[in-house]
Write a structure and sequence with these properties.
With 93 residues, this protein is mainly α. Helix content is 77%, strand content 0%. The chain has 2 domains: 1-37, no CATH class; 40-93, no CATH class. It is built from 5 helices and no strands.
Length: 93
């Protein structure tokens, strides 16, 4: 739609839109091949990705976390709280 709005023909805009999405199935196939090769380290990679997502949520999506000059305290507190909850989860089943 943005390409069409910029004056490109319908066929050309459709072709470029389709070509921009061709990366996804190619990346999916590469990911499947790499998953079978990296089966032993996959849980660690996924947990690292989850930790990165939690960090982004605390730093960017919670406005109060960045208020004031000590904005890292909220991030560190969240990390410590998460570690405590994981320890309790494993210890208490």
């Amino acid at each position: 739609m943005p390409l069409k709005a910029e004056g490109m023909s319908k066929k050309k805009a459709f072709l470029f839109g389709t070509l921009s999405g061709i990366v996804e199935p190619i990346a999916a196939i590469i990911t499947l091949l790499m998953t079978s090769a990296a089966k032993t380290i996959l849980p660690y990679l996924l947990s690292f990705a989850a930790g990165a997502m939690i960090y982004v949520v605390v730093e960017e999506l919670i406005p109060e976390a960045e208020a004031g000059k000590h904005s890292n305290i909220a991030t560190i507190g969240t990390a410590i709280g998460f570690v405590i909850m994981m320890i309790l989860d494993v210890a208490l089943g």
